[in-house]
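The pair is listed for reference:
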Amino acid sequence: MITAQRPSHGGNVINTLDLGNARPAVVSVRKQSYAEASLQAGRSGETITAALPAIEIRTEVLSISDKQGAVNLSDAAIIVSGGRGLGSAENYYKLIPPLAEALGGAYGASRAIVDAGWVPYEHQVGQTGKTVSPKLYVACGISGAIQHLAGMRSARTIVAINRNADEPIFRIATYGIVGDVNEVLPLLTEEIRRHSGA
């Protein structure tokens, strides 16, 4: 029997779907939902050639163009994300992009600050935003709501920076810094730039 889970209602409900024993069953998985699989020597797959039935195509793609200024969080190896603990949109832009740039990564955001209008939706990480699995994820002022954790918990290394040591984000963090992000981030950015010679 195959079962699958999917979020609905803005990520507030998790549905478990029972696909029974019917075959074939087709299930899609969000990109970067899982950590990269390790290479297994000697494994190979079987290619099957099958004819598809003729179908009537009622739509025609005339052109495809990249979205201007789009943020590609799904492919980023390093992501620095900010949350409500930053205090304001001004603090977000003053602290998060510079740290992401110093690390050579992209910058994301929690749903709370996207909903508050601080940051555009394309930066949102979580169940209702982008699901990511970078090598390094730095969570700044993010408490760790379940919807956010579901979108980034498979990151290889997670660094949490928050003034409250009891926040859920610390339960999954590889490293934690208890402190005010508004004080910690400028020092961290400066130190990284100094070591990288930027």
Observations:
- The chain has a mean pLDDT of 87.
- The radius of gyration is 20 Å.
- The longest strand covers residues 3-8.
- The first helix runs from residue 89 to 103.
